[in-house]
Structures are given as C-alpha cells and as structure tokens.
Amino acid sequence: MKILLTGGTGYIGSHTAVELIKLGHDVEIMDNLFNSKITVLDKIAEITGVKPKFYQVDLLDVNGMDKMFAEGGYDLVIHFAGLKAVGESVEKPLLYYKNNVGGTINLLECMKKHNVKKIIFSSSATVYGEQGVTEMTEDMQTGVGITNPYGETKFMIEEILKDVAKAEPDFEAVILRYFNPVGAHESGLLGEDPNDIPNNLMPIIMKVSLGEIPELSVYGDDYDTVDGTGMRDYIHVVDLARGHVAAMNKMNPGVSIYNLGTGRATSVLEMVAAFERASGEKLPYKIAPRRPGDLAKICANPTKAEKELGWKTELDIEDAMRDTIRYLKNVKKK
User: Fold this and answer.
1) Can you give the pTM of this predicted structure?
2) Active site residue 96
3) How confident is the model at residue 82 (pLDDT cuts 50, 70, 90)?
4) Would the pLDDT of 332 be above 70?
5) Domain residue spans in the chain?
6) Which of 128, 150, 178, 327 is catalytic?
7) Which CATH number applies to 2-183+235-261?
8) Rounded Cα distance, 313 and 302, in Å
9) DSSP string covering 6-58
10) Average pLDDT, stretch 177-203?
11) pLDDT at site 157
C-alpha cells in the first residue's frame, strides 16, 4: 500500500513509518520540520534499510501539497502533523486553530481532489475534557471541559471528519485517541526529541537526565492515588505505532474511533522510580503545588481496539524506560 505520513519525522510518525516499512508498505513522509529533524530519515533507513521519500511541505502550503499528491498516488493518509504544545496553544490560540484545523481542511480538500478516500487521524485523550471520570471509553461525550486550544483543535478535527463521512459515503476515517506515549525504538536510534519546550512528563524526565533541566516538578502529592501523585496511562510508542497498522487493516466506510492505551495507570513517582531502576541514577525532583484542572487519575479503556482491531499493548513501563535509556545514551554521544 502507498501511504503518506503527515508529520512523519515526528516522534510517533517516525515509529509508525518503521512498522509500516517492515511490513513492505511504500511510505512517503511530509513534514515541515518545525518540531522534528531531517536526520530522522537516516535513522529510519538504518533500522529498515529503506529511506522514505520526503517532502518538506507545510499543511498551510496548499500548492506544495497539491504537487505532492499529484506525484504520490496514495492509498491512505496517516495524519500526525500539527502543533502540540498545550501551554503555547493557550498563548497563541489563533496559530493553533489556523495550523491544526485550517491545515487539516487543506489536507482533506487535497485528498478529495486527488481521490484519496482513506485517512487515519492522530487524535488525543484531551478530547474527553475534564469530566471527572477515571476510565475513558469511546462512547463518552467529547468536547466538554477541554481546557486548552490544542485539545479543542483535536475535537474540531474529529467533528470535521464525521461531517465529511456523512457527506461522502465512500470516505473511510479512523480516529485514534492517544493517551501518553513514552519509550523509544529498541535500537536506540529513534525516540522523543522535540525542538520545543516539553509539556509531558517523559520528555521532561529525559531533559533532567541530560542536565538540560535541573529537576522535575511533581505537581501535587496529595491526590487519592497509590502515592499521592497523579496517575496516567502511559503507552509504549512502538505499541502505539502498531495500533495504526491494526487500524489500517480494518478500515470501513464512515468513521471508527478507538482508544490506544494500556488500560493501566502509573503514578508520577512510579515513573520516576522506573527510570531510576533502568538508568541506575537518581532523578532530582521537587513537589510543587497542584496544577488547576489536573485530575488524580486518567486511564484508557482499550477494550474496543482489542475486540475490533485485534490490537493490545505488548510492552510495559519497564520496556519504555529501558528503550529510553538506550536512546538517551545515543543522544549523549552527539
């Protein structure tokens, strides 16, 4: 199958490219390199033996996308591209709506023009908002209590895809709601390496380990959890990538929605302890006040994905930490 990955040099996109190439698919990548590095292409080639064809094209560059689609002849688009820093989205909402929502509309119009009917969309558990519910299922209401423009853009794009599917009966879309991707490729060649300031726990832990940030701030230690710190569902990025392969093999007309998570929650201090076990080093941290809106525990219910896609996670937090340490050793060599 000929597959276009938008944002394919990013963290999740690059790991998905590896899984697809290993299965013999013809993968091409579009990315503006705003939050990723061109060297990722060489890493993909080192792992798979194949260097994907690359287009440095932005979602807002309609002419560039049109040319790419005219050359491409794609069967499927997997759409990762988008701005994703939660804090920045609060400060620059117009930028996020223009890029993420406007850019996706450009992409969908280009797909329609070139008769590409299939898309898998990289969404997020943020679409569930703050409903005070611990375990998220796909049939829950979305769009209520979303606290930032980044999450709103994911919700809006989901709604756009649903409307397109209503208007075009042969349109096939899968929405994958991610929880918290962690880990790296077992080779140590690919991992999370954002150009922007990280907002999520794992890249902050990595930057503390590298000495780029002095210590980890743990926001709140008085939640009703195993150790008082917040608990989240952390999924190994390779399991997440394989979820896209499983979804690709089960596409149907209309819109299908799946949670991709482990169904297990891990606390911040449990993550710190797992990193210390894997690295053999102490990770400096401090307890800070709770952040407004943070919930004690959030977890995926991945039952639907297992039942309908035959997919479930195979890797755990220990695997994620082991692979992250391997990746960090490569980063330190640079």
Assistant:
1) 0.96
2) no
3) very high
4) no
5) 2-183+235-261
6) 150
7) 3.40.50.720
8) 9
9) ETTTSHHHHHHHHHHHHTT-EEEEE---SSS-TTHHHHHHHHHS---EEE---
10) 88
11) 98
- Amino acid letter for position 63: N
CB within 8 Å of 178: residues ≥ 6 apart: 12, 122, 123, 124, 125, 235, 240, 260, 261
Q: In this structure, are residues 76 and 3 in contact, taking their beta carbons and an 8 Å threshold?
A: yes
DSSP annotation of 290 reads P
What are the phi and psi torsion angles at 174 (to 5°)? -120, 130
Structure tokens at 209: 């380990």
Residues contacting 208, CB < 8 A, separation 6+ = 214, 215, 216, 283, 284, 285
User: What pLDDT, on the 0 to 100 scale, is given for residue 123?
Assistant: 98
- For tokens 């990746």, the residue is 327
Whether residue 333 is predicted with pLDDT greater than 80 in this model: the reply is no
Query: Which whole number is the average pLDDT over 137-163?
Result: 95
pLDDT of amino acid 200: 84
Look-up: residue for tokens 């040319």? 67
Q: Residue 309: enclosing H or E segment and its boundaries?
A: helix 303-309
6-37: burial string, b at 16+ Cβ within 10 Å, e else: bbbbbbbbbbbbbbbbeeebbbbbbbbeebbe
Whether 334 has a pLDDT exceeding 70, the answer reads no
Q: Which residue has the tokens 């080192």?
A: 46
